[in-house]
Design goal:
113 residues, mainly beta, seven-stranded mixed beta sheet
Length: 113
């Protein structure tokens, strides 16, 4: 059973930074891809960034230059800088393994003054 556990969310002022972490119950490098998604109330879940086994990373246009995805053996991270109120959302970690998609429980990020 694959488990993903996010942490690091919270309340931050506009322009601030947060770093999200997603710990997995198996090596991060065993996944075909790891990603961060977000879902705001009343909106669909959307991809924020992902990183492939090859280490190639992909970012949504709305976070390019502000967010960075990285990983080590135990976790995948999302460094979020220059946060905007519109970044307020629940952020979910996703792992793709043998064509199965696994999700964490989500962590709330609120950007407000």
């Amino acid at each position: 059973q694959v488990q993903l556990v996010e942490s690091g969310g919270g309340l931050v002022q506009p322009g601030g930074s947060l770093k999200l972490s997603c710990a997995a119950s198996r090596s991060i490098y065993s996944f075909d891809a790891m990603g961060w998604y977000r879902q705001a109330p009343g909106k669909q879940r959307e991809l924020v960034a992902d990183i492939r086994r090859s280490s190639s990373a992909n970012y949504a246009d709305f976070v390019k230059g502000r967010f960075t995805i990285s990983r080590d053996n135990g976790a995948v991270y999302l460094q979020m800088n220059s946060l905007k109120p519109e970044d307020t959302s629940v952020y979910y970690c996703n792992g793709l393994l043998f064509s199965q998609s696994y999700w964490g429980q989500g962590t709330q990020v609120t950007v407000s003054s």
